[in-house]
Amino acid sequence: MASNNLFVLLAVVLVVLPTVTMATDYLVGDSSGWTVGFDYQNWAKDKVFHVGDSLVFNYTVGVHNVIKVDGPGFANCTIPSDNSNVLASGHDVITLAAPGKKWYICGKLKHCAEHGQKLVINVEAVAPAPAPNSAYGIVTSAFQVLMAAIVALALLV
């Protein structure tokens, strides 16, 4: 009986795990990190960001920071008057929680205005899961078929 429960648990984990682990962590600037003299718009141009993905900003503490701003703040490299959006750990992870444009700048010295240390991205909603074939009521994904078979076998054993 214990092996049947373990098999069912494994089948459930295999069905649920892919939906949990689909988020992507983007290392901003790749191996260069968050620094001056890097083209972040070029870095981001071919990437598709989704809700649930994370941006990872790596930099030397005290030399740089990360500030979330709005569109005008991004265009003008304006540092907000409150410090609630300033991140300064050297390893800042921002989980993208909502779709739309997101803007980030460095607020140190003139890193944004003179050195272009700023990033704008567009975050898309989470892609919907493949829908079942409504004409026949069957699952269309091969992975979903495999998982359904595993669950069915677990229930029969």
From TrEMBL:
The chain crosses the membrane at residues 135-156. It is a single-pass type I membrane protein. InterPro entries: Cupredoxin, Phytocyanin-like, Phytocyanin_dom. GO terms for molecular function: electron transfer activity; metal ion binding. Keywords: Copper, Disulfide bond, Electron transport, Glycoprotein, Membrane, Metal-binding, Signal, Transmembrane, Transmembrane helix, Transport. GO terms for cellular component: plasma membrane. Residues 1-23 form the signal peptide. One of its GO terms (biological process) is response to symbiotic fungus. It is found in: Membrane. Gene3D superfamilies: Cupredoxins - blue copper proteins. Residues 24-125 form the Phytocyanin domain. This is Phytocyanin domain-containing protein.
